[in-house]
């Protein structure tokens, strides 16, 4: 028996239905994973609403999970039956008790990483990894800005950037989230509604920033640009407040010959060697204790709709997992 959360049309959380589905058999190059924990991420909302298009409807959403390999198809060398594994790069389909996917998208879990930890940090941790180590490689002594600093990616980025010797400015929506961000490495916190560029100017003594990491999107795009020093890098990697409207690229020249990028984890981990290296980097910082994963919410997988409501209402902090 196998169950999954499926959507038959795009819309609100009420579109998510707990249904019995066939147990799939792995095709050549695939593995069947019996899932022990599933990660909740804002990208799941985008697929549910239709901002990001699912290949077809009905669809099972979800990008990451951890579990045990139950069967493998032909020509699989990356994993074997009984391996503890995790994944975070899609395709969608994680909101299920069991699923198949390409074996080369799976990474083996070290003994010191639990299923719940892996489901909580694989996508968010590897997102933090490519943002801080590849998209813009932060340097010791730099001051950086992380939006949504009390969210899953934000808390990891604050800790990791602090570990790398950065001064971290975080933005949050409430004072309670400000305390959480500070406890996880944010040196300065700016609340929603404050004049962000003015706060950054004060904190940096007018020097402004080499990079801004923005997962909020529409509401913070222009203020984020105004926080950058000449030649600064604007990293827009999410749309929590809605997609950024069309931009006249001349604004980048006017504000200091700025750079703008819209990266994705899928691109940075498209090659298996890059996927494995990114995952190992995350395993290392979590295993060493330099980055601690806060699993602050747990829901039964069948109650994923309520998890989505809480996520969109900004009631969640840190990481959230769904338990099959």
Automatic annotation (TrEMBL):
The entry's keywords: NADP, Oxidoreductase
Cited SMART domains: PKS_ER
Tagged with keyword Cell wall biogenesis/degradation: no
Domain Enoyl reductase (ER), chain residue ranges per copy: 11-322
UniProt-listed Pfam families: ADH_N, ADH_zinc_N
Entries under InterPro entries matching the protein: ADH-like_C (IPR013149), ADH-like_N (IPR013154), ER (IPR020843), GroES-like_sf (IPR011032), NAD(P)-bd_dom_sf (IPR036291), QOR-like (IPR047618), Quin_OxRdtase/zeta-crystal_CS (IPR002364)
PANTHER family: QUINONE OXIDOREDUCTASE PIG3-RELATED (PTHR48106), QUINONE OXIDOREDUCTASE-RELATED (PTHR48106:SF13)
Protein name (Swiss-Prot/TrEMBL): Quinone oxidoreductase
Top-level taxon of origin: Bacteria
CDD domains: QOR2
NCBIfam families reported in the protein's UniProt record: PRK10754.1
